[in-house]
Amino acid sequence: MVGVSELTGERKVIFPEIAALATGYMVSPRRLWAVSPKRMLFYLSGCAVAGLLIVMCLSMPVWAELSIAFVLAQVLYTFGGTSLAPFVSAICLPVLLQTETIVYPIAATVLSLCVILGRAVLIRTGLRGREPFIPVSPPDSPQQYLFILLRIIAAVIAVFAALKLGVRLAVAPPLLVAFTEFSRVRKWEADPDNEIRSVKHPIRTVAVLTSTAAIGAYIRFGMTMCLNLPLTLSALAASALMMYFMHKTRIFMPPAAALTVLAYLVPENDVLLFPIYVLAGSAYFAAVAVFIDKLQRTAIKRSLI
């Protein structure tokens, strides 16, 4: 992907969520989302097109367009029958970068199809087991919709502040994906399997997100910007180090993988500051996710009394 971008000079070929998809759908010992191959392809390609259309058809401030993209993604996440959060990035990334080329949705579709076919090969060879797809039910109580509304409000506040302050990478799309997953609606039953590990360990979560962003940014800076080595070579080294980091920590966090690749899309003058932006944004989103989770726990306890 980065190689094609370097050869053609077309940066929009780089689709950071491919790293998230590969991590959660192929590398992780178990599939991390409730999704079928058809839904994955349809949602990712459809959201990529939707993001492009928002940029091309709306003449609004970027923060407003990005907020609209996030709200549309949340509607799909709530009623789409899937827990596949990376499509949040698919719709938000072209808006944040103000992409107006058809190359982006084509790249998103082709790369998503590659991940789907890759998992099919792993299943066929016995390296991964078949996992049935059970559609995710929509919320069934007013309280659950309230928590979703809180998520949207918190994200819009962050988007507005980041764009107004000129630190747009603090709301990088993979962080919006992470926030969506961390603040998802809980089941109302006391279900230990429904624990959201990221909100139980927010400091570790922020550390992982910042570390993978730093891997991509500083390897790009050192190998490509300082040593003038090909971008493809530094991206390969960063990806390998990121995967080693995840295997050693046993933390397979798809948005963190996407941040490593996103470091190859940010402007050169933002590369060194990219991990700082991610630290600030992830700290905010983690804090809000913990707050929403505590509200949900309180509501669950009261419903069980």
Shape: globular
Overall number of strands: 0
Gap from first CA to last CA: 53 Å
Secondary-structure element order, as H and E?
HHHHHHHHHHHHH
Note the beta-strand portion: under 5%
**Unreliable parts:** 188-195
Residue-averaged pLDDT: 87
Biggest sheet statistics = none
Cα-based radius of gyration, to the nearest Å = 19 Å
Give the helix level as a range of percent: 55-70%
Which structural class do you get from the secondary structure elements?
mainly alpha
How many DSSP helices? 13
Describe this structure as you would to a colleague.
With 305 residues, this protein is mainly alpha-helical. The protein contains 13 helices and no strands. It has helices spanning 2-8, 17-27, 37-57, 62-79, 87-96, 103-124, 142-165, 173-182, 197-200, 202-226, 231-249, 254-262, 274-304. Helix 3 (37-57) runs antiparallel to helix 4 (62-79) and helix 3 packs antiparallel against helix 6. The termini are far apart. Mean pLDDT is 87; it is low at 188-195.
Fold blueprint:
Layout: H1 2-8, H2 17-27, H3 37-57, H4 62-79, H5 87-96, H6 103-124, H7 142-165, H8 173-182, H9 197-200, H10 202-226, H11 231-249, H12 254-262, H13 274-304
Fill in the keyword field for this structure.
single chain; 305 residues
Task: Briefly summarize what is shown.
The chain has 305 residues and is mostly helical. The protein is built from 13 helices and no strands.
